DNA sequence: GTCTATAAATTGATAGAC
DNA sequence: GTCTATCAATTTATAGAC
């Protein structure tokens, strides 16, 4: 899921370097824009091709099918710098919410595609399923570490993962971020994505600490960090 | 937003009562199913018509256009019994999450359509924008009432609505519910929608009570109710 | 009132020119 | 390697039969 499957031709022989860097990437950017505006199903190859002044078939030369194009667009994200693991991951999420408010296009891309992916036979279904599973684990690790600095996520202790309070908190934090995006995209003045994300993270950590779940961790410590 | 715009012919003259109650409603149910499975844009009138054994044009006779059909499907929800206002509204949300887990079709319908509605020129955009605005107000009223039983939501006191902690909590609770639906639809065993919704509602109420926001309200009171 | 036949436009994708 | 001409299938919607 992390390795870019498609080879990125560092400098295609017939390409004048500096004149046109990479046609594939131009198409990728155009496709990301159009998918963000229209969703995957409603977007047409013609829309994407028109952005670049070519025909739909021109796009399909570089990517075998519309589905392949979507896959490549999603894989783009994995190119970015890796997020911090552990305690700092929660702050990173709040930062992400803040940055998302400055780039509606990218925000809409993932908001629309993630929800669209639950439709029958959607090509991005596996990608998002795995992505959420991974993120839930990462966020849980961050929550556990904040409750009890240095601790690791406890192994299976009888109850299923989904029922573990720290895992529930992780699912909740991710869910808030996603849900806020839709509300914000519909009405940017109605919600502050970063502020609400921070509020929920703080509230959950405080709550779990008070419930007697984490071994120690005073309420104050958890309160101030996110 | 509450009144059904389309007239519901109580008993069309030429209709044998009891044999076929209402062709419109049959189409509406079929459309809801297909929109839930495919989303609005990807769904075709042919898919809907096939369910009933007729042609696409047969569907368009009852509803002037595909968009009108979507509008009618969304308006269906307003027919249900009205949810409780005030304090009990939070419990109602948890109940809703639990019921949603038993009807994936309806859950998917709103999860897919709400996110799809943020795409450019989507016909359901206004509907969802208004829906969220209304829900945020209702949920905030419930949160306020739980923090300080009997109290009402304070009028504008300088800070914008979106920045008021109780309003932020309301947006958060709705966002969690929406985000959880996507995670759950992708992987039903990974999350318990009702449990996590309750967790977040409790955590937020406790947190706001502790922050010194609500006038009084002991932590214990808020803890036990949701 | 209920619906089929039909049209006009658009879709993703193949085959092949340059 | 880059892309256009072209195709077969599917789209929403109109006009009109019953």
Automatic annotation (TrEMBL), chains A, B:
Q: Which UniProt keywords apply?
A: DNA-binding, Repressor, Transcription, Transcription regulation
Record-linked InterPro entries: BetI_C, Homeodomain-like_sf, HTH-type_TetR-like_transc_reg, HTH_TetR, Tet_transcr_reg_TetR-rel_C_sf
Superkingdom assignment = Bacteria
Full protein name: TetR/AcrR family transcriptional regulator
Supply the source organism for this entry: Streptomonospora halophila
Q: Where's DNA bound on this chain?
A: 44-63
Q: Does the keyword Transcription apply?
A: yes
Indicate the segments forming the HTH tetR-type domain, all copies. Answer: 21-81
| Ranges of compositional bias, category Polar residues | 1-15
Region span, Disordered: 1-22
Concerning Pfam families, the annotation shows: TetR_C_6 (PF13977), TetR_N (PF00440)
């Amino acid at each position: 899921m992390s390795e870019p499957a498609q080879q990125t031709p560092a400098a295609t022989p017939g390409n004048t370097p500096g004149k046109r860097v990479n046609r594939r990437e131009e198409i990728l950017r155009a496709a990301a824009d159009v998918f963000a505006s229209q969703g995957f199903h409603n977007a047409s190859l013609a829309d994407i091709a028109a952005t670049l002044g070519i025909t739909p078939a021109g796009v399909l030369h570089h990517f075998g099918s519309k589905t392949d194009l979507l896959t490549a667009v999603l894989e783009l994200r994995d190119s970015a710098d890796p997020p911090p693991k552990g305690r700092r991951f929660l702050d990173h999420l709040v930062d992400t919410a803040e940055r998302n408010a400055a780039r509606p296009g990218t925000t809409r891309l993932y908001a629309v595609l993630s929800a669209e992916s639950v439709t029958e036979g959607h090509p991005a279904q596996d990608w998002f399923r795995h992505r959420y599973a991974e993120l839930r684990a990462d966020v849980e690790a961050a929550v556990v570490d904040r409750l009890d600095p240095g601790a690791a996520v406890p192994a299976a202790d009888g109850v299923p993962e989904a029922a573990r309070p720290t895992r529930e908190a992780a699912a909740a934090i991710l869910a808030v971020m996603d849900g806020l995006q839709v509300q914000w995209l519909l009405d940017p003045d109605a919600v502050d994505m970063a502020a609400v994300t921070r509020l929920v993270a703080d509230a959950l950590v405080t709550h779990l600490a008070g419930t007697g779940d984490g071994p120690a961790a005073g309420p104050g410590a958890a309160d101030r960090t996110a």
